[in-house]
Model the fold of this input.
Amino acid sequence: MADFSQNHLLGIRGLTGADVELIFETARGFKDIINRPIRKVPSLRDLTVANLFFENSTRTRLSFELAQKRLSADVVNFSAASSSVKKGETLADTVRNILAMKVDMVVMRHPHPGAAHYLSTKIDVPIINAGDGTHEHPTQALLDCFTLTERLGSLSGKKVCIFGDIRHSRVALSNVRCLQLLGAEVMVCGPATLIPKHFASLGVVVEHDMDRALEWCDVANVLRIQLERQGAEVPFFPSLEEYHQRFGLTKARLDRLSQPPIILHPGPMNRGVEIASEVADRSDAVILEQVENGVAVRMAVLYLLAGRLGGSED
Done:
């Protein structure tokens, strides 16, 4: 089996197909472990992981922390709201001080695109990007694709449409790159104001009619409308009601299809905006499977990067 090729996980770019398959194979093993009565393994025993979250997070932070504890790592949680960052300390100095306490690995979410990459040039421990602004969120893309492979097997030739707020999402770019790496065809669909022009250059199909997109796709990955990132000065669409009418995933839309797609959503959901409650709770929605798989995939990434340290145990 090939070794993992990366010293960090900063984004999907740089990963090889073999890297992704290795993550998935490792995640399958860990998924078996977290579904047994004794859910912990000693793989990261004696290693310390720092979770540095400079933005609010619930699902991703809990998922990473649970993954770390399932691997028996020591965990340090850092909150920017109560840190010296508020006093003007730089990101690099903050992390250097944390590393002086003998931390072996860093998981970081930051509001500025490129923050994780910048940090990787300043410190010499593995860094996992848990989301950098509106840029990337690689572990979300990996768990989304892992979830799809469980349902569909190979993604080669499968048609996946990413719906919604592409402009303000850190999930969209990572998903496009990961899906393409695995051979899927990718479409993005939403209002023109919420799809950046450069997405057309990524080799994806751009569609503004939701019903046509649903007819085309095998998988619908529905993204949250991120009102907190949009600002109030220039609205990107007239109202939430109109958005739901034109781009909301509803039962009526799915009922018109001969073959409804598999439905994903990275959460948190705005029920009644981008997705109707009766759709979110359907049997062909794999939203809760994504949550479970997130722990296994993050365990796999932590384990494989720790192996690059030479500090993991079998």
